[in-house]
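Researcher: Next sequence.
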Amino acid sequence: MMDAVVPATPPPDDPTGTPFTNRAIPIEALPRLDDDAFDSVDPRYLRGWLIVFGVGVVATVLTGVIVAALVEVPAVPLVIAAGVIALLAVTSAYTVVETRRLGYQLREHDVSLRSGVINHRVATIPFARVQHVTVSRSAFERMLGLATVQVNSAGPDIAIPGLDADHADRIKQLVTERAGIDDERTGAAGPGDDPFASPPRPNSAGTGTESLESPQIGR
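Model: Next structure:
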């Protein structure tokens, strides 16, 4: 006697009554990160670095000329100065291309960073996986009125430099709110408040890095 063939049991339906489905998703139907939707960093970021390189070139020329006037073989310090200037020029050109490539994009459920000159890279962090958000301002950034937003997650981390300081605070507030961090622990806006409203900035004295941090999720 042949054994009866038992049909495979389909997965149970959702308790809400929605039937279980597992259809294929065509590549054309997947969401896209549009390059045109990426926001560029503040122009002051690039201008600041170009000023630094310019000061380096002037200092190198003056040093090379002064040293050449004091030594018996002036060609040696002049050649060294020329090499340093060439290195600064290459670094400056690389920084221009790198900054123009640098961009970020905030969507309803994630934040993305586009970077890289030779190897192009796009990193995306869903808000649900965000663990920590920090706004930092180095001495260089404070002189330019800029800030960097560092987003730490259970996977990759991203840092968005060259942001207007007020804009960086708003991004931090939005990310922490969308990540579901408790308002009482972060001071973030409540559900009925505008997530783009600028929070009050703390008073900070001294040098180094000014940091505004939100606590980790799940404490």
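Model: The helical segments are 43-70, 75-101, 139-144, 165-178, 183-186. Residues 182-219 have pLDDT under 50 and may be disordered.
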